[in-house]
Amino acid sequence: xxxxxLSVAAGAVLALRHCTVFALVPVVIILAAGAMxxxxxxxxxxxTIAVEVLGAVLSTQFxxxxxxxxxxxxxxxxxxKLLQSIQAAIGQELGTAFETPRDLPPEMAVLLKxxxxxxxxxxxxxxxxxxxxxxxxxxxxxxxxxPAKIRAGLGRERRWLGAS
Length: 164
Known about the structure:
The chain is an all-alpha fold. Helix content is 73%, strand content 0%.
């Protein structure tokens, strides 16, 4: 029985590796010889050995054929037309199952208006200046600090932390 299972697997591997049918011949011979040797070594009836050898030969061909058919089916299923029609059907089903929102939540509408206004202002001026930039909360970004102001700020923080 183990040779029948091995034969199916060997046939499938050969098919998926795109080997020709003639590559089955040595594999079938090896598996049939193994089935026969195992049957003789274990002392089985000659009819049982014959069935095992026949099973090894036929199951290799069956595995090869089944893998070719399965690979062709997968290739056909992954073609673009079929995939697009499946996606369209899923989209239609989702469209009927769930209502598409027609209006934005208030927060999104405000952000969209701000963004639209900012884009219109920048396109009217021809370029984006530092003054036209705004943060999400509506405040303008602070101008760059000079190194002297930064050092002065660090000095205040050091005094606050108790360092000299």
